[in-house]
Automatic annotation (TrEMBL):
Gene3D superfamilies: NADH Oxidase (3.40.109.10). This is Nitroreductase. Pfam families: Nitroreductase. Keywords: Flavoprotein, FMN, Oxidoreductase. The keyword Repressor does not apply. Residues 40-207 form the Nitroreductase domain. It comes from the Bacteria.
Amino acid sequence: MQTDDFILVNGHKHIFYNQEEVSEKEMLQRSEDYFNRCNKRRSVRDFSDKEIPIEVIENIVKSASTAPSGANKQPWTFCVVKSSEIKKKIRLAAEEEERKSYAERMSEEWLDDLKHIGTDANKPFLETAPYLIIVFKRPYEIDVEGKKHPNYYVNESVGLACGFLISAIHNAGLVTLTHTPSPMRFLEQILERPSNERAFLLLPVGYKAAKTYVPAIERKPLDEVMELY
């Protein structure tokens, strides 16, 4: 069966896709504008506690959920934490793991590579930021009968969604930081997540503090990150 609106492929409905086409001039301008906006993004560790409308966070999460995923399984859950009590629990647990990492788990080379960033085991932003978004990956789904069904390319899919998430946060005029305390199983326990979810990434989200400083670093130039064949 085929119409102007859809066709059937292997018995499944495929709808007509129409994307706006623009001139090369506008395409170049859009791509340059987007780069310039992205290039202003920085990882921020100093947050304001100023409130953010939950609708903004919802739109950010919806944007992240538009990311491509293996077989369209969308193997992710975005847990949004506003509760001060839960944020405090997360901070205490994260700092405990971070102290172990800085004291025992990280190599001297790793610690040396972090010196110019100025990080340590203290993570006050986990309580200061008005929201935390914890991204969980779902390696499999569990149906009502308890049977497991696999998801595909889970790490790749969730990684893509996190990229969309960070871009959406920046686009909204907010700041964030990719925080990955290792191991992160405490997040599953504190938030009482189901057995098929694993913590993937934690992002505090908010406005930057009034006086915010970031490391004076530079991004690699194009000729170091792109090869044209």
